[in-house]
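Reviewers asked in the last cycle whether our approach scales beyond single polypeptides. To address this, we selected a multi-component target totalling 591 residues and predicted its structure end to end. The input consisted of the following lines:
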Amino acid sequence: MTSIETAAPRFGDLAAGDRVAGQLYTDPEIFAEEMKKIFYRTWVWVAHESEIPEAGSFKTTQVGDQPVIVTRDRKNTFNTLLNRCRHRGATVCDQRTGKANGFTCPYHNWSYTLDGRLRGIPYPDGYEGVVDKNDYPLQKLRTESYLGMIWATFNADAEPLEDFLGDAKLWMERFLKQSNGHPTKVLGSHKFRFRGNWKIQLENTTDGYHFPMVHKSWMASVDAETANMMSFMDDPAAETHALGNGHSVAIMAASHADLDIDDGTEEIQPRFQHLVDELVAAGEPMDRVRRYMRSMHGCGFNLNMFPNVAMSSSFFRILVPISVDVTEVWHMAIGMDGGPESINRERLRIHEHFQGPFGFGSPDDAEGWDRVQIGAGGNPTMPILVNRGEGRERISDEGWPTAHVTDETGMRESYSMWKKMMSDV
Amino acid sequence: MSDTLTLGLTDTRVLRAIELVWTEATLLDAKDYLGWEALYTDDAMYVIPIDPNTNDHETSLNMVYDDKRMRRLRVERMTQGYAPSAVAAARTVRIVSRFTVAEVSDTVVTLRSAQILNSFKRNAFATVGAELTHRIELSPEGDKIALKVARLIDSEDAVSASGFLV
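The resulting structure, written as structure tokens, was:
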């Protein structure tokens, strides 16, 4: 008897520390495998708690390429439910956000509760002795929340969320200090698509190297203080740390990395003087006003959490993989739930200035990403280099591989996790 | 059909306003951003909102919320040659039609219209649909745009990053 051995493709071998094959952006088989081995297996960010503020609130999104509903039920528990009726597979919710008592499939009106239980079947006599409603809830993903950020996973055996976040947790805490003691609130979302693979975007969040080149026009449009804050190319305090599990942090403005620490030397930007005057007139103490102003541009770093969410300077950045060569990006403006509304309005204006399909920054990023996708198809086996700064990488006191913010330490961390997950059988 | 709509079809003040909207479309297709900027009054706002229903753009997140200063910066960005997306921007052809008149006087005309913008870049065609609102200030010295709101029909979903204006 003869046997034919069919080895499964060893996609994990296509990433090798300081380089990855261009094929990782272009091969539909790899994309399909990534859905199975990464997006269905690890924690995927789905919502911020402020997006679903009350019992009955919900939001629809995706985990990998699968449609889900994130709900807050009557017990204020967060649920992530596959948006697929158990009867014939139609989506049971078609709205982006809203408030509901439950979800009813429009096809045959099977209805479900906010936590996914099958509540009602019309004309049930045909199902007597055939269907027990307890056996047909909406498929429910494991859902856990940390500091208001909600993640879900299809993997019942996944490690606890906080273990997965690991050393990223410290940076999440620092990031959220920009809310100045108030709860963080999502103020709105820019959504756009580019014609490229999701990992091209994943790389970008801790890529300080591209910033002065790609965003020259934005740098020319902001005041001198803001431009100076983002002039990190020669700043030795601007570093990138690999945090483990694919996570990394790129610190562009070290003086803002912990907003609780203020040495008093930074001058408040003249562009915010009208706000200073308003807040002082309203009786806010000067140290508090200073805190608000220093938090205006965010936290001074980009925290990239594998595989799909970043806390980026002053906003959340979400990537949604649509297909091997199409990716959706959400830039979610955040502000304070409470505190002076004028601060939130100013944050909206700052966000609009850079982000979104008509911002002064996002379209230029997308131009680069589109071209990577096209160019990488030129010779899919030729490696993409992520080796910048290897020669000067060191281990920090915390034990993190560390190099300059313009180095590709963060990408190497992401691809290390990618390789590990894609090598699993 | 409303009285204002009927009036609009024959009113020369409305025709002046429509002519200005078409001039704006021509300048944007030609990427003549300096010419485009000159069509606006000093206190004009140019807005592309995300929320299709709100008129409170100041407290909402928008795709564009430009006063005079931001329009100036935007025109600089689009023309200075440093923005890769603007340098490689798609070619566009837009059609503005289906005008209705919301307001007309000797000094102000407010028009609503539909715009279909066709773009072409790197072998890909795209269509952007939008509802436009223009408030036009009429003056013997030259008519100008005092407000433009472009409501994209897909504003709440993913919009392709753009190197041009709508």
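Residues 18 and 111 of chain B are 8 Å apart (CA to CA). We regard this as preliminary and will revisit it once experimental data from Aim 1 are available.
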